[in-house]
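Repro:
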Amino acid sequence: MIRRRRLAVPLTLAAALALAACAPALPDTVVAGTVITVGWNGELTSANADAQPTAANLEIAAATRAGFGSRVDGEFVADEGFGVVTIVGDDPFTVRYDLAEPSWSDGIPLDAADLVLGWAAASGLLTPSDEAPEDEIALEVPVVDEFARAIEVTYPDPVWDWQERIDVAVPAHVVGQHALGFDDAMEAKQAVITAVLDVDVDALAAISEAWNEDFTLPESGEVASEILLSSGPFRVETVRSGEEGQSVTLVPNAAYRGVPTPQVASIELVSAGDDPLADIGGSLDIAFVAPVASNKDTVDALERRDAAAQTPHDGTVWAVHVRPTGLFAQHSARAAFLRAIPARSLIERGAGEWASAYAGSTAMLSAPGTRSYDIAGEDAGFAAKLTGAEDSTLERAAAGVARGAPVCVLYDRTSEFAVGAFAALRDAAREAGWGIVDCGTDDMEDATKRGDWNAVIAETMIPQSPADVAAQWGAEGDAAFVAAADPLRDDLIAQLSRTTDVYAAREIRAQIEATIVQDALVLPIAVNPRVVIIDSDVAGVTVRAGTSAPLLSGATGWAVSP
């Protein structure tokens, strides 16, 4: 059921066309002829990263799509150069999405049509029929303001991600042209608005097909220019495929009106090859590698030649999880086992010479260095409850666990870190009287499903959304290593999903973390780093921690050193 609301006033066609007629030059910040080449193993498959949210598509979108802001270290950072998002009503919960004056790279302005299309996508109206939920969802279509550059959206309940819920992934005028047969861009925009607000089933079906499929890149041949339109600081100039993989060229978007603007004339994303470190200073300026023993000397040698090495975490945390069944059915047994494990020893044995790159962690829901992590450290009680055993042997005995009780510990034998961490865990736990059984495997996915283990050393994604938290730690979660129902935790997760204030959200996350600590289910060890090598001729590169476009989210700051 969808409640219809009408467009307040028609689009201002003359003004829009006047804007489109301008052909701006490149920003003054761009230094002609400068090129930075990056080794990557991604593949751009769609210019609509919302429809196909692969890591590579999201990475390219970070450079080529403007928006109301982005999530950095788990919290929203606004971009008021694109527009402003404000809560204009609490009951019912109503949010206004108000554009500044952004433009697509073909000169067509972003306006209400783009926001309405973004709302339709976020609301599930453009979800393919075979993926749509069976239950009918009650939605109230947005109100479009008199200037046609803003919409007001009323939600059934407060939503935690209200600032970023509306995302302009692709141009409404291109969707309207492809789906509804209009040649004129402004007529196409108007048709998209009308189709959504009138809930025109046939038109929405065509719009859905265009939104989901028409921005997919062909496997070979030329890419249609209109599907590569950009609203961000860069645009995709060329996409080439070859035997070594795909390469993508990004150039500054002359129509971009935000800040900051690019400094380099071209970014080349090329296949990293078998040994990217060997190409630093030659064919590559930036490369990613895993922190393994075999490349430590090479990285050190590059740093001696003034190359820079960064080790931001990749959005995952290493931890020891215990299953609350069998031997560990009792809380006291779980706590005694986890308190016998010295996390620092696991880092040192697991990482070896790379140990300094692994930031120790005491949380599962946030990463070191964030404000949420600091608050969780203050409130969750991890240090008092799960570390610092005065006598691990006495704690085991007091928990009623006999000396030598077998603990089957699962870990990934193909991971250097996991192998070393297991060795450290085994030695410390055996000293405390636990009978550690080596249950290492070459197939973690299959082994974790079998469930014939007591504890596991593994990487876990640091959850970003309440849905992520629920999947890992909720009673109905399907992404957890260990399942342990807790009504209080479920209530807090539900509360988090409706919390619109960043400060309140931090407090609730800390409370959820406290329930995990209280249940003695897991011992965080460290966040997992990625190693980024940057040639000395390149400046301004800061790779973002986490999973959300770590590389290109900061590409406007890149420069070639004079």
